[in-house]
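Side project, low priority. Logging it here so it doesn't get lost.
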Amino acid sequence: MATLLIDTTYFLTVGILGRQPLWVESSTDHVEMLEPLAAQVLEECGEKVEKIEAMAGPGPFTGLRAGLAFATGLSLSLKVPLAAGSLLFAEDIWARAAGAGGNVIAVNNARRRQAYFQIFSESGEELSNMDIASPAQISRAALAMGRPFTLVGLPGEYFDKISSALSEAEAAFSVLARPAGSLPWLESMHQSVQERPLPARPIYLREADAVPLFGKEGESSREISADNLLWSLN
């Protein structure tokens, strides 16, 4: 009997617990790639799936919807339970397995020059709520702890910006860039679901990108400059 794990919180990772997963280094191809990757994983496994576990976020809007909608549909089709977990808690678990000591700041790319983040104690206790902030704001939150910590997250420009902001603030920290697709990452996802299960609903920390450009009848339209529009689409 197998447990299928799905992570669409940024890059796409699909795998069977205990086996090397498949993954795609893309944050925009979840809808197209998730089904064929899952089909390949299940075919290669050759075992009956008894449970599905997925990361509920926080992460970009479309990826979360695609991942959890697929996981929900598959669980109903196979008549197996579906459980979800926090990406940031899974990163904390992965960081400690990789040797992190002290507090951990887990982050995920939120685009628009921001990141999702949460701070954990050395025992895994939540020292802050999930939040979304700029690198400078995350740096200030880290400094407020007043002790060394480990920064963990997917590698990328956003991660480098956070690390740079921490360095400029002369924070005492180390860095762990986690892989998107690896056996230890699947195990960390699974452990996060087992220890702190969440409803299989997307965790959104930002308002929807789509906003009405016009008010009620008779009201003037909102003025949106080209610069602001480009920023919102970044």
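Brief comment: The first strand starts at residue 2 and ends at 7.
Revisit when time allows.
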